What does this fold into?
Amino acid sequence: MLRKLFTPLEKIKAPFNLYIILFWLIMVLFTWFLLTSGQKHLIPSPAQVFTGFGELMSEGLVTHIGSSLSLCFQSVLFSIIVSLIIVYLSPLPALKPLASMISKFRYLPLTGITYYFTVFFHTARGMQIAVLVVFMSTFFITSLLAVIKDIPDEEFDHARTLKCNRWETLWEVIIKGRLDYVFDVLRQNLAIVWMMIVTVESILVAEGGLGVLIKNNDKFMNHGKIFALQIVILILGLLIDVFLNFCRKSLFRYSKF
Amino acid sequence: MSYIVKDTILYVENLSVAYDGKVIIKDINITEKDVHRETVTTGQVIAVLGRSGRGKSTLFKALTGLVKPATGQVLIRDIKNSTEMDIKAKQVEEGDVGFVDQKYTLFRHKTIYQALKFALRKSSLSEKEKEDKINKYIQEWGLEKVRNQYPNELSGGQRQRTAIIEQIFSSGSYMILDEPFSGLDVGNVEDVKRSIHKIGADHTLNTVIFSTHDIELAVSLADSIYVIGYPTINGKMEHYGTVVGHFDLKAMQLAWKDFDAGHLQLVEQIKKLMLSS
It folds into this structure.
């Protein structure tokens, strides 16, 4: 059995695959305890994180989570609408360069550009959403363009042999035919989105959120609370990921990738 | 075995197709006529043979109107506007000729029922007639149990049958099957052969064109065979596909009968021709 564990491409049956995951979980926790058992340690101990978590609760952690989730939902909604419109119009030769160009903007840094948003948006929330929509859209557009590029020519030919005109082909093959991929693109880009949300919240603190909590605690070097917040952010991100995957599989029975 | 040929149903004249300046097929000429037998309804079954890369798929795309020819034309019968006395021809357009590719492509987001309903969307039939037609085909082609399944829940054979019905519904009399036998087990091969016979038996104008690498299968199934290959001109082999041989199995008394020595002789002849082109 031990030999199998170290053989490339070997398939491990249940429940042994679960034992391996459990082993690594215990190893991580053990290492954490071990590294923080002395007087001086770089990272906070589990007890400090636990205490930090309790303190965060009394500071309104739930409200801040609600604020971050609300920001996430609004930004993702606007961003995906904008991205889909641009991407669905990209098969038009005249508009194709536009989508490709916006996709390239993902290399632009956030810092320095936020000033221009203050000119147009006068509330902190409005500005946060605008910043996120612009930056998230560049990532969504990149992924959605890749989805369209991967559609085999046979699917377009199939639609054409069924007397679909070009707009019907766009509707059936690209829009309806790849709707489930939109959920997957959302899921895949969620990590970037989630990271941006925390950054944007820490730039514009007026509306609160998990980013504000991290920033405030970072100022006072309260590592127990920072670690607790990181764990909360990680768990929330993973839960959204699971939720989106669940939505894709429930809404689109044929979506089996 | 007696038969008569009537009017032309497919006329391909000096067809050539080029991609980015590279000529793939050139000088393709095909003439097929409507065949009638006394007691049996018989459509036309045409096989296209040739080694890989000789342009069979490109020829099919031109025949279905999916690619525009660089030169020449593809004419089919304008069934809608023709009468018994006045037969009209038309340039082939997208959707006139059904096409089932090697992967049996279907809409991934439509069940069999939804796909067939979509294929009939431009038909002049009433909703009730459409429903009846779909149910009839689903039953006849053995798809009742999977009528509400999506393509990725179907077997290869079920997908292929659905793709064929879809094209029958949408396109009418002409059907092209690109390598319909590739990768199929012996049972599925028989299913496809039955499907081809079924299409032919439905109407005398029905015309099935298919490609295959199995020469014996082509000889046993088709009543007309075209071999596509590289031509040798002035002792030099050119690198574009064209018709290097045509065998009318009806005239050769080999069509619509069990495989015998005559068929075997033809298989050898075609094999030699393919190897030299």
About this structure: Residues 48-251 of chain A form a domain with the MetI-like fold fold (CATH 1.10.3720.10).
